[in-house]
Amino acid sequence: IHPLYAEMGTTVFERMSALARELGAVNLGQGFPDGPAPPPLLKAAQDALVERSNQYPPSGGLPELRAAIADFYTAQQGLDLEPADVVVTSGATEALACAIFGLVQPGDEVILFQPAYDAYAPLVRRAGGTPVSVPLKAPGFQYEATAIEAAVTPRTRLLVLNDPLNPSGTVASAEELGTIARICMAHDLVAICDEVWEQVRFDGQRHRSLMDMQGMAERCVKIGSAGKIFGLTGWKIGWMVARGDLAVALGRVHQFLTFTTPVPLQWAVAAGLGMTDVLDELHAAWAASRQRLGKGLEGAGFAVLPNAATWFLCIDLAASGIELDDRTFSERAVREGGVATVPVSALFEGEGAPTHLVRVCFTKPDAVVDEAVARLANWR
Ligand code: PMP
Ligand code: GLN
Fold it and tell me: Residue 147, class by beta-carbon neighbours within 10 Å (0-12 exposed, 13-18 middle, 19+ buried)?
């Protein structure tokens, strides 16, 4: 086995979900909504299973889905895309693997802002690259030109931007996107924009993609996930969007990773991207749970950081008068308090990790939210 995997642990998400199952804890750790899936989407998947071909679709994705994704981004984000700019993958995770394996060569450096989704660094290392950490500071997690510039060397090949940011739920401002774009252009960097949380915003703003910044359309690989848009994380339909030749090249990486992804679900997602009512309803339900968990936690004496996006709130332990560090809190909360959470420092590499923040997922039915709050209030 490659030494990278021999030395690796299990992801914090998998570990927390396993602990929650084993201990009967309420699981606010791994990010997923529980509760029923939207019936029109299930119907679309069922119809596709029964009425359409169940054989390999084209490797790049069903033409109908590639067109639906291009249209969706044109309508939602004003991007000027062709269906050929889209490659459908098995979740955003596969898109990340394709982009990183396709773009990173041995010796390349890749800027990873911290906190970073836990797949990035291992993929970069497996590609022979070196992750270079740029820590973002709580509570704002802002992007600062001087810190980014200081991390760039002649070996820097790309940066990975996760916006909106998991786990903080913060969003880059237009000015910060402009800074990142300027640095990419000045140093000839490609940006992988992991924008899986683009549709899960609560600040009344539309997502602005780095790809939409001047000069960036040709140097971005934008990654999305139906898992987040529809709250169906087990469907594992994702995609990457890049211009022309780059999309063709990344499609070649995809053809020898998974080749394709389950076709009935591709049909369902293609239909779902046009279901405005379904999307609005989901969003309203998530906004209500966010409110409910935030209010509940505050009522129980927990301080919660402002959040503009994602399914996550961060509890500020220090501001809540809790002296435990995040890992100790998470470990004890699941074992003694009966609630699984994610310590934010688990998503940090290098210096500068905050140890006073734990992430909780709020996209749960009211009874689950209330039970989690009651348990935490009782235990703290
Ligand atoms: N990137 C980020 C930032 C995520 O939060 C997630 C899932 N939580 C993924 C990628 C993976 O998405 P998928 O399940 O579509 O592979
Ligand atoms: N991305 C999800 C989260 O942040 C987890 C995905 C996974 O478990 N790999 O919770």
Answer: middle
Q: Looking at domain 3-38+277-379, which of 1.10.287.1260, 2.160.10.10, 3.30.930.10, 3.90.1150.10 is its CATH number?
A: 3.90.1150.10
Domain positions in the chain: 3-38+277-379, 39-275
Q: Pocket of ligand 1, candidates 120, 161, 166: which has the most ligand atoms within 8 Å of its Cβ, to mutate?
A: 166
**Residues 172/153, Cβ–Cβ less than 8 Å:** no
Q: Which atom of ligand 2 is nearest to the CA of 119?
A: 9
Determine the topology of domain 39-275 in CATH: Aspartate Aminotransferase; domain 2 (3.40.640)
Indicate which residue's Cα is closest to atom 7 of ligand 2.
13
For 108-151, how does the pLDDT look when each residue is reduced to its tens digit (9 = 90+)?
999 999 999 999 999 999 999 999 999 999 999 999 999 999 99
pLDDT tens, position by position, 185-229 = 999 999 999 999 999 999 899 999 999 999 999 999 999 999 999
- Residue 33 CB less than 6 A away from ligand 2: no
Where do runs of H (alpha helix) occur along the chain?
3-6, 12-23, 39-51, 63-77, 91-103, 120-126, 145-151, 174-186, 226-229, 244-255, 263-272, 276-299, 326-332, 366-379
Mean pLDDT throughout 98-102?
98
What integer pLDDT is reported at residue 71 of this predicted model? 98
Task: Answer yes or no: is pLDDT of 35 > 90.
Answer: no
Asked whether the domain spanning 39-275 has the same topology as the one spanning 3-38+277-379, the reply is no
